[in-house]
Amino acid sequence: MDIRPLSDTYSVTPQIEPEDIEAIKAAGFTTVICNRPDGEIPPELQADAMRGLVEGAGMAFVVNPVIGGALTQENVDAQRSAIDAASGPVLAYCASGNRSSIVWALANAGRKPTDELISAGAQYGYQVAQFRELIDRLAKG
C-alpha cells in the first residue's frame, strides 16, 4: 500500500487489499472511499467485500465508482459529501490513485486555490492539470 497525502485530511492510494485494513485504521483514517468500479476487479476486492472489512475495523466506507473517462457531476458531489461527512482523515482508492485525486480536486473547487489542487496530485504524477478549466468553472458556482 502506498498512501499519498493530498492534504492534511485526504489521501489517495492504489487498490487496497484486505491485509491493508488494519494499517489504514492504525494510520488514523476514519473513512475509506472506493472510487473503483467493481467491473475492474475480482470479487474479493469488490466494494461489498471491502465494505465488510473496513466497517468491521470501525471505519466508514463509501462507494463512489469513477469510470475512467466518464467522471460525472454526481461523482464529484458524492465525493464532496463523503469528505464533508467524515469524522477524520479520508483515504480514497482506485486503480492508481489518479481518479481519486481528480475527483477530490473537483470536489474542492472553490474551497482551495486551483493551483493548490493541481499541484497536490501532480507531485505523484496524477493528471489533474487537464481539469484546470473545469475546476475554475466549478469554483465560480
Automatic annotation (TrEMBL):
GO molecular-function terms, A-Z: hydrolase activity
Short name of any one Pfam family annotated for the protein: BLH_phosphatase
Entry-linked InterPro entries: BLH_phosphatase-like (IPR005939), Prot-tyrosine_phosphatase-like (IPR029021)
Domain (Beta-lactamase hydrolase-like protein phosphatase-like) ranges: 2-110
NCBIfam families assigned to the protein according to its UniProt record, in alphabetical order: TIGR01244 family sulfur transferase (TIGR01244)
Full protein name: TIGR01244 family phosphatase
Species this protein is from: Pararhodobacter marinus
